[in-house]
Amino acid sequence: MTEIDSFQKLKAYCETEQFKGWDPFDGLNSKVLKTILPLKHFAIMRLIVIQGFKRCPWNLRPLFSIPKEYNAKGIGLFLQGYCNLFKVAQGNPTLESELGSKEVLIDKVNDLANLLISLRSKGYHGSCWGYNFDWQSRRLFLFPAYCPTVVATNFCATALMDAFEVTGKKEYLDIALDSANFILNDLHLDDYKGEKMISYSPLHGNDLVSNASLLGSKVLAYCYKYTGNEVYLKVARSSVRACCKGQREDGAWTYSQIPPKLWVDSFHTGYNLDGLIAYEEQTGDKDYHENIERGFEYYIKNFFNEDGCPKYYNDQQYPIDIHCPGQLLVTLHRLHKFEKYEKLADMVLNWTIENMQDKKGYFYYQLKKGVSSKIPYMRWSNAFMFYAMSYYMLDKYKSS
User: Fold this and answer.
1) What mean pLDDT comes out for the span 281-293?
2) Please, are residues 349 and 392 in contact by the beta-carbon 8 Å criterion?
3) Against a cut of 0.85, is the pTM above it?
4) Which candidate, 340, 360, 394, places its Cα nearest to that of 9?
5) Pairing of strands 141-143, 320-321
6) Are the C-beta atoms of residues 110 and 159 closer than 8 Å to each other?
7) Exposure winner among 22, 71, 342, 362, fewest CB in 10 A?
């Protein structure tokens, strides 16, 4: 199956489902369990429910009345993907029959942009987005449904900025720029080695996370590009400095700077590189380019096998998560390294299509040593691969 054939099947599946779906972490959305379990009062019970649904290889969600819903981050990923497809079609009119005409793609961009705007979290100082389910992290803290995060907000705000670029509709840009007010007024800035890291959410409990802080820097860097607001630049730069101070000598980043989250994994490393290159390109500050190159060298050498099989962690193969191959395609595009690593991109994508795409078109969440889940998760698996493959096509089918 070619990458175009694979993408057509994925696109058809997602459009048929109208971009709604289940999520690995949506167990607490069960209408059945809400009526029979005291979930509000016991963190351990909430954790068991979430992990039970997440780890079970069989889809029990229909049985427990967990509905398919929109997830704001997923819609942001789809929106960015359709913006990318429009650019591909612009430069390659012969691909319109496979990807959609420019007119159809623009209509989809507008539909998704307006949907995304309607999914904003309410009650905060600026535009922001969260997930459509309660999420319990171990026994440490609970994120209520729609509590915004800087990670989800990054994917949504930057997609709206791109929607503005391809449609010219300033409303999209204005709402995206308003996300800077959320970052500056609702998130907290945590001290790290004399600098400030941007928090994951308005709540305490998942702090000093490099990828969250750098994706916050990315949003602020884009907002700075459009507005020239020096406050955005100052906060973004301090976050970048902090995260570069937290980078190991070998180029790696641990997920967090504090225990227990000290692992090194593939796709969060890619997020870090995305945040850094966005900061450099949008602000013109190249002082941290060496950190980008060192981080990329670690990333490319430690997370992909010779046969194209991706790795989750630096020191172990499993689980093979769909974000790992997907993020490679994004990282190569964002760092302008696709041409040099095109063979690797092709190998990894072909391996992923052969091993992780269902005949119905959707992609699997993870492959494990034992029984793997083949549940069609919309945000985690399909929106992310739609987004990732759209970047692959931007590079593979550059306009002549």
Assistant:
1) 98
2) yes
3) yes
4) 360
5) unpaired
6) no
7) 342
